[in-house]
Design goal:
Oligomer: single chain
Strand order of the largest sheet: 3-2-4-1-10-9-11-15
Structural class: alpha/beta
Largest sheet: 8 strands, antiparallel
Shape: globular
Helix content: 25-40%
Strand content: 15-25%
Number of strands: 25
Bound molecules: 2-deoxy-2-amino glucitol-6-phosphate
């Protein structure tokens, strides 16, 4: 059953959690509170609930973890047997009470909870303000409540369903929403595009949620809502219609035989595998960054006298790749520095003319923050790239960008790494435009390929996963690996090596392939596995030379190649193929995916839990 429900390519990136319920009897609030607790893994920087009672909407919401907010506000204490709730992972607007969901319209008669990213919220907000709407928050979500209000105002004959329909047809981006109206207190209207939404059918209750765990203890009967569908929950039952033309959709409920543990992983055995599979959805969300902040950060980088890219671990590998992107696209020299070395290496020289771009998924890594604080004390400009709005890094950066990957539960960074690379590539492209160092055609070509990366990564996962699994089985007892690349693929090699070390505990060595003959090649003996990352870029010829020098000494060659690369296929003992035609500056994103899967399956083959690697923490907040 797990496999059947887990349709390929439908793994949407977890960003926030929404929930709604209609009960024939009993209080909705406590049930919403418990459901949000079960969705907490989807986001947990703010929480809120709205219920309807006697034609009035009651709301409690605040920033903070669910238990903290409950202690202050008592989330169970709201009247009514109909309600909606939300647990937030901030993407637009810091974690503050005013930005917590539910969001309401001007009259307070419409309440909305939302998971996703509304790309065109800025222009919609301007349009609505022009019509007299006043906004409370800085979120993208709030525009939805005012769009519904506006639809009802301009079409008095509209009911809530038509008003929601009118509203969502204006939205660009991803959404799963649940809407309450005190004017129609007997229903919840939901709609989805890209962000996940499921309906739970209980004995005397109906539920809607971002994910099955929310209502699994209450019912195992679920209906998956598909993209472009609108659902009305009422005491009469649930009704699904297409947003396009309101045509009715009949869909049989499925029986969910997952345990709660499996449900939270959407049927995947581990969070890490779920998050590797989430990368296409994640990359789509990372392509929805707010133009204003990308441009602002690119301006700072453009004017900088010297730029350091500072991070740890996987985030450092993103910086290493970015240094090739900035150089090749914008002719901007940047210096990737491992954060724990920054103070020793540059602490004395960093100055008011220095710019630091700190990259940290958690925004809390002590080594990175220490480097940043040293730079700030010396009047350097600090920029931040993180996945957690409200983290320390966002508070000490002059400008920061949130990569919008949603929470990453697996200790090993996977989806957050490819998201970081996408943001850094978008920055490099904007810098290229500002500096005019490459032709418009080349910029357009790379921009077009960047937008295709979600589909390309999807193709890699769906066509190569089984192959990678077989390669992991073949080499599961190998004692050591080399990971080699040239150019930007050196960063990919370092990342592949870190993944294998940190979750499968296999000693691995990564270095630029050109370094082999300067020492490391002495380690090679019969059957020594060497992983090569070989996009068909300017390094292709030389990497073939490196493969041959390893092969001549008996190494087993595992190559990540571009589809149809016959030349390397002949030399490799095993190979994994990535779709062709990816520009070198973008190649780490699709080429790292087979390495993530390889590390995952090696860990599983060796009997380890990839989600909880020994000795490691998700965020290293100690130096
Ligand atoms: C990566 O898989 C590791 N979990 C670790 O190297 C991590 O990338 C590093 O600790 C940096 O974390 P940050 O991005 O939150 O700063």
């Amino acid at each position: 059953m797990a496999a059947k429900l887990r349709q390929k390519g439908t793994v949407a990136s977890s960003m926030c959690g929404i929930f709604g319920c209609i009960l024939k009897e009993g209080a909705a609030a406590p049930l919403i509170h418990q459901a949000l607790k079960r969705l907490e893994y989807r986001g947990y920087d703010s929480v809120g609930e709205a219920t309807i009672h006697d034609g009035k909407i009651y709301i409690k919401k605040d920033a903070g973890k669910i238990d903290e907010v409950h202690k202050i506000h008592n989330l169970d204490d709201l009247p009514g047997s109909i309600g909606i709730g939300h647990t937030r992972w901030a993407t637009h607007g810091a974690p503050l009470m005013v930005n917590a969901h539910p969001h309401v319209d001007c009259s307070g008669q419409i309440a909305v909870v939302h998971n996703g990213i509304i790309e065109n919220f800025a222009e919609l907000k301007l349009e609505l303000e022009g019509k007299g709407h006043t906004f409370q928050s800085r979120t993208d979500t709030e525009v939805i409540a005012h769009l519904i209000e506006e639809a009802l105002k301009t079409n008095p004959s509209f009911g809530l369903v038509n008003a929601v329909l009118e509203a969502v047809r204006r939205l660009e981006g991803s959404y799963a929403i649940a809407v309450l109206s005190s004017k129609e207190p007997d229903k919840i209207v939901c709609a989805r595009h890209e962000s996940p939404l499921v309906v739970g059918i209980g004995e005397n209750a109906l539920y809607c949620a971002s994910d099955i765990p929310a209502f699994l203890p209450l019912t195992r009967k679920a209906v998956i809502v598909e993209d472009g569908e609108l659902v009305t929950l009422s005491f009469e039952g649930f009704e699904i219609r297409k947003i396009l033309d309101l045509s009715p959709v009949i869909r049989e409920p499925k029986f969910i035989d997952w345990t709660p543990e499996m449900a939270v992983k959407q049927g995947y055995p581990h969070f890490m595998l779920k998050e590797i599979h989430e990368q296409p959805a994640c990359l789509r969300n990372t392509l929805r960054l707010q133009e204003h902040y990308l441009d602002l950060m690119a301006t700072f980088l453009d004017r900088a006298k010297e730029v350091f890219l500072v991070a740890c671990g996987t985030s450092y590998h993103a910086c290493l790749a970015a240094s090739y992107m900035f150089s090749k696209l914008a002719y901007l020299a940047t210096y990737p520095v491992i954060a724990s070395e920054f103070i020793e290496q540059h602490g004395k020289s960093v100055n008011i003319d220095s710019t630091i771009l700190a990259v940290s998924q958690s925004g809390e890594t002590a080594d990175t923050l220490a480097a940043v604080n040293t730079a700030r004390q010396r009047a350097a400009t600090v920029l931040g790239l993180t996945n957690v709005i409200g983290s320390t890094l966002t508070r000490i950066s002059r400008v920061y960008i949130s990569q919008q990957s949603g929470p990453e539960i697996g200790v090993a960074a996977t989806k957050t790494f490819t998201s970081q690379l996408s943001v850094l590539a978008q920055l490099a492209l904007r810098l290229a435009k500002k500096r005019g160092k490459i032709s418009q055609d080349e910029m357009d070509f790379i921009d077009a390929k960047l937008k295709k990366l979600p589909d390309i990564v999807e193709t890699v996962i769906t066509t190569q996963e089984e192959k990678v699994k077989a390669v992991a089985k073949k080499y599961k007892d190998s004692k050591v690996f080399f990971f080699l690349g040239r150019g930007i693929s050196t960063a990919t090699a370092y990342e592949g090596r870190l993944k294998l070390m940190e979750i499968a505990y296999v000693p691995s060595i990564a270095f630029p392939a050109g370094e082999s003959k300067h020492g490391p090649i002495s380690l090679i003996e019969e059957g020594f596995p060497v992983v090569f990352i070989c996009p068909k870029d300017d390094t292709h010829k030389t990497i073939i030379g490196n493969i041959m020098e390893m092969k001549a000494r008996g190494a087993s060659i595992i190559a990540i190649i571009e589809e149809g690369d016959e030349e390397i296929k002949k030399l490799a003992d095993d190979y994994v193929e990535v779709p062709r035609g990816i520009p070198d500056v973008l190649s780490p994103i699709p080429f790292v995916v087979p390495l993530q899967l390889f590390a995952y399956y090696m860990a599983v083959e060796r009997g380890y839990d990839p989600d909880k690697p020994r000795n490691l923490a998700k965020s290293v907040t100690v130096k």
